[in-house]
Amino acid sequence: MKKLICTSLAVLCTMSLLAQMGRQFPSERKVINDPKTGVELVFLTSKSGTGDSKIYQTHNQWTSDGKWVVFRSNRVRGEAMAVNEENGHIVQVTEGGFTGMLCVARKSMNLYHMRVAKDEDGKRTGMEVVEVNLGRLLDDSEAGKVKDKSKYERICGTIPIEMCSEGDMALDGSEDFVYFRLDKEYARKMPIAEPIADNFGPRKMGAGPGGIGKMDLTTGKAEPVVAVHFKVGHIQGNPWHPGEVIFCWETGGKAPQRTWMVNADGTNLRPIYRETEYDWVTHEAVISADELVIAIIGHRPINNGERAKKEIDGLESFAMSNDWGPSGTKEYATGIAVVNMRTREFTLEGQVDGDNFWHVAGSQDGHWVAGDDFARELWLIDRHTKERILLTAGHKTTARDHVHPTFKPDGTEIEIQSAMLSEDGRSMNICIVRLPQHLIDRYKK
Q: What does 340-394 look like in DSSP terms, one character per residue?
């Protein structure tokens, strides 16, 4: 019996060490040139079956020192990783799991995430907001002197279960508080200016109410910001304007009014791009202090009632014309567009021939926008000349996923996810697309 107990304890200790924050994994870094364009691709991960995927394209991906990329992975199930761009070292940066969005700070070497909070009986009590000191953790990991997770992790506070039960989260530009989605029943008790919306479209999503809350990262105080008449989707803070939150009406497809913003005190709730019934707007991202980039897609046949020839991601509801009304066809303007959040000025930057941009991004210097298309190609558009440049192609992804481009803050690289090197042709890896030097130099002063 004693031998059995000792063996069990040894196994538990080994499992604990294997799941420890700061654990390192061997480099998988591979550098290749795109077979079609010659552009340099740096695969920071390259194994199959590891469950890698990048943080959503609305959020920052790099640590503030520019050296590490944070990503999701199943190398240790339910935990997040960081990979060093130069040496390829992969380090586990959470312990005890995370849920929802990973928020990498721009002003400090901190990572913020949510984790389900439970009482002694295992009952869910809310959502913990967790701060991880990546600077200290990554330094100790590189030195081989990893300590207990309490040396790197701080619980900022717990959002009550009745206020929030899911992990979508965004960091405010001040980095003093985070935003989160309010639960539907909590939002229902708050004042809402518009009549509560019903579901919109064939996927039967989008019904309200919804809302946004915030938590002070110093005091742990959680409070509501605003309630709205629709289902709230992705949330993002404006890194350059503290106190601004940008979010969307989520229907699973075309929304009556996709893009919204509000102040952190709940004032000045307003649409950003005021779309028409013909616009299918999606995948908005804040790219500079005053600008939001959006995709306006035209993936459906012009004649209502006809079935689209191409199904997108295997979802037939996207391909049925009548179910979404007259939106999403190339009878009207489509492509990557940029909207000024102050003046409401709208600029259409460009569209790919015979296809559609899907996920979009932009450099904060105002020179470039980028987008993936349904063929999993990545394109760059010069905002001054409207020149379209194919950067890289052939990036197979899972049936329901895409390349999801995000610019590095200095504008020299774009992070994507790709199955190009995967043995199974499906497992995604983390890849850095380096802009050719002549493009980087184009607008240097």
A: ETTT--EEEEE--TTS-EEEEEE-TTSSEEEEEETTS-EEEEETTT--EEEEE--
